[in-house]
UniProtKB/TrEMBL annotation:
<keyword id="KW-0560">Oxidoreductase</keyword>
<keyword id="KW-0809">Transit peptide</keyword>
<feature type="domain" description="Enoyl reductase (ER)">
    <location>
        <begin position="10"/>
        <end position="328"/>
    </location>
</feature>
<comment type="similarity">
    <text>Belongs to the zinc-containing alcohol dehydrogenase family. Quinone oxidoreductase subfamily.</text>
</comment>
<dbReference type="GO" id="GO:0016491">
    <property type="term" value="F:oxidoreductase activity"/>
</dbReference>
<dbReference type="InterPro" id="IPR011032">
    <property type="entry name" value="GroES-like_sf"/>
</dbReference>
<dbReference type="InterPro" id="IPR020843">
    <property type="entry name" value="ER"/>
</dbReference>
<dbReference type="InterPro" id="IPR002364">
    <property type="entry name" value="Quin_OxRdtase/zeta-crystal_CS"/>
</dbReference>
<protein>
    <submittedName>
        <fullName>NADPH:quinone oxidoreductase</fullName>
    </submittedName>
</protein>
<dbReference type="InterPro" id="IPR036291">
    <property type="entry name" value="NAD(P)-bd_dom_sf"/>
</dbReference>
<dbReference type="GO" id="GO:0008270">
    <property type="term" value="F:zinc ion binding"/>
</dbReference>
<dbReference type="Pfam" id="PF13602">
    <property type="entry name" value="ADH_zinc_N_2"/>
</dbReference>
<dbReference type="InterPro" id="IPR013154">
    <property type="entry name" value="ADH-like_N"/>
</dbReference>
<dbReference type="Pfam" id="PF08240">
    <property type="entry name" value="ADH_N"/>
</dbReference>
<dbReference type="InterPro" id="IPR050700">
    <property type="entry name" value="YIM1/Zinc_Alcohol_DH_Fams"/>
</dbReference>
Length: 332
């Protein structure tokens, strides 16, 4: 099968598009023929080796984290899906930038019936991130105030829609040129990060979803009220992350130290800091499918590329200017 893979950590030029062996399924897995996959900033970070000390990969490594396609074959214990089902998922072990991938039954969901494969492929990673942050961790309630950083990005554009569905007042940061665009998604308050310091404009927020890390994460503490929560997908990992990746005893000691400073600063203000290590989850995706089918959440795709144009697609994602997601069309 054709696949996009790397033989070493490096840069976009190190991505190879060539033949790899079709993966084999076990009794709890499904083999899926991929129609479309999407590129996330995470894919670039994996490619560059940012996580190699904590989450090393085995080469050759097929890239890609989310996809939509058709079930081709199922293992003996797979009862929820059958050959021919149209599905989507966040990958668990095998990459998505390939003509076929293998995924655990528990990670799969039927794709929303009202959208194309390309639109469905744009959703799993970003929508699961938004769901697990706002529903599972923050448990956002009607009337709460939520700040979502980078509202025009892949995660932000879905998180705004989900937070509004949950009944929150939503603030977001973006560039001025995207202000009306994120308002149309549901943002109540839009902060132009190029001209305005968000921490001087916002106060007494219940939840911040941080997609930036660094100084943005630290400044976010200033907008939260006591009892508030900041959830980061770009900040330093915490003890829960070490447990989730089944780290060895040494890493379990080291990893929590990476977030000690931000956790301590948050604690002094009566705020909880959480690092979100999003997990594949078919049940969560099934709930999100209902929201897509009812029109509560609309997938946002900026550009679609042919599989052979994968390096161009990576370059575009690397500019950081994509509004929503960038999708690869794997099969016709």
């Amino acid at each position: 099968m054709k696949a996009a893979y790397i033989n070493r950590y490096g840069n976009i030029d190190d991505v190879q598009l060539d033949e790899q062996s079709k993966p084999l399924i076990t009794e709890n897995e499904a083999l899926v023929k991929i129609h479309a996959a999407s590129i996330n900033p995470l894919d670039l970070r994996v490619l560059e080796g940012e996580f190699k000390a904590i989450l090393p990969v085995k080469f050759p490594f097929i890239l890609g984290n989310d996809f939509a396609g058709t079930v081709f074959q199922v293992g003996a214990n797979v009862k929820q899906f059958k050959a021919g089902d149209e599905v989507y998922a966040k990958t668990d072990q095998n990459g998505a930038f390939a003509e076929y991938t293998v995924v655990q039954q528990s990670s799969l969901a039927l794709k929303p019936q009202n959208i194309s494969m390309e639109l469905a492929a744009s959703l799993p990673l970003v929508s699961l991130t938004a769901w697990q942050a706002l529903v599972e961790i923050a448990k956002v309630q009607v009337g709460q105030k939520v700040l979502i950083h980078a509202g025009s990005g892949g995660v932000g554009s879905i998180a705004i829609q989900l937070a509004k569905h949950l009944g929150a007042t939503v603030a977001t940061t973006t560039s001025g040129k995207n202000a009306q665009w994120v308002k149309a998604l549901g943002a109540d308050i839009v902060i132009d990060y190029k001209t305005t310091n968000f921490e001087q404009e916002l106060k007494d927020y219940d939840v911040v979803l941080d997609t930036q890390g660094g100084k943005i994460l630290e400044k976010s503490l200033n907008v939260l009220k006591r009892g508030g929560r900041v959830i980061s997908i770009s900040g330093p990992p915490d003890r829960d992350f070490a447990e989730a990746i089944h780290a060895n005893w040494l890493l379990k000691c080291i990893i929590p130290l990476l977030s000690w400073s931000i956790r301590n600063k948050a604690k002094k203000r009566g705020i909880t800091y959480s690092f979100l290590f999003m997990q594949p989850n078919g049940q969560h995706l099934s709930e999100l499918s209902k929201l897509v089918e009812s029109g509560k959440i609309n997938p946002i795709v900026d550009k679609t590329y042919a599989f052979t144009e994968i390096k161009d697609a990576f370059q575009y994602v690397n500019t950081g200017r994509a509004k929503g997601k960038v999708v690869l069309k794997i099969a016709e």
